[in-house]
Amino acid sequence: MYSFIVNPNSRSGEGRNVWNRLRSIMESQGISYQYFLTEYVGHATVLARRISAAGTPEDPVTLVTVGGDGTIYEVLTGIIDLSSVVFGFIPVGSGNDFCRSMGLPFDPFEALRSILENRRTIFMDVPVLHLGSHSYRFGISAGIGYDAAICQEVLITPGKKFLNRLHMGKLIYLMVALKQFLFLTPSPVTITLDGNKPQTFSRTWFAAVMNQKYEGGGFKFCPNASPEDGLLDVIVIEGISKLKMLFCLPSALWGKHTRIRGVHILQCRNVHITSAHSLPVHKDGESGGIQREFSVTIEKKPLKIIMPVL
Fold it and tell me: What is the pLDDT of residue 254?
């Protein structure tokens, strides 16, 4: 049986409409399934904990998330034992960086067909963000500074829902990015990789720990990142003028920013990041509050992901 966690409010309410159509398809095919609609922030974590408790490594549950990239971290955080779950994802969001990086279908109906066929799986590394006394798993990235500031403001921007209904959600990201670009002040950031000697970057725009190639709705910040290599990729952009940043960010859409001086790509198995000033933090595009430090490690067990047939 398939267990679905559905965020009905994803893409400003489009998630509910898409889910109703997906249900019709499964019922017409006699598919056995159960589903749960999220009702509040953090509910997907509670549901994932309850559902995953029924699985074992020998007999895992198939847990499918229907929503945006931000729903992923909630579901991953709630899974009790990663080896007791087979994970599927049906995108109903505006960023779709998880699908873009993993090679999953962008179309929710193609994604459902791939999950029901279940003819190919891979094992994905699952990073853990340690933030104060709390820990959160994530699938895409966690970051501090400019990228997180954009994520946090977009979440509370009134025009987001309206533009999403017009399929112009990326416009709100552009508007907020320009605003943050004008007012954000780069901060000194110290990064420690695998417990080695700390590295300090004096004027850091942002630092992001990546499990995937893309974040921010299509920015290929870590072109060589792989969710299967047991490593974290860390991007740091520092010491760059605002004028140079105007060229750096667009080039990141194609992964060409790595040639620019001041762009650093690092690899590690665990990382600790400390900022001289409190800055916004994000986890898979969702707010992690205003923080000065955090750490990221990788779970010992990977997660089995249902993939489309090549």
Answer: 94
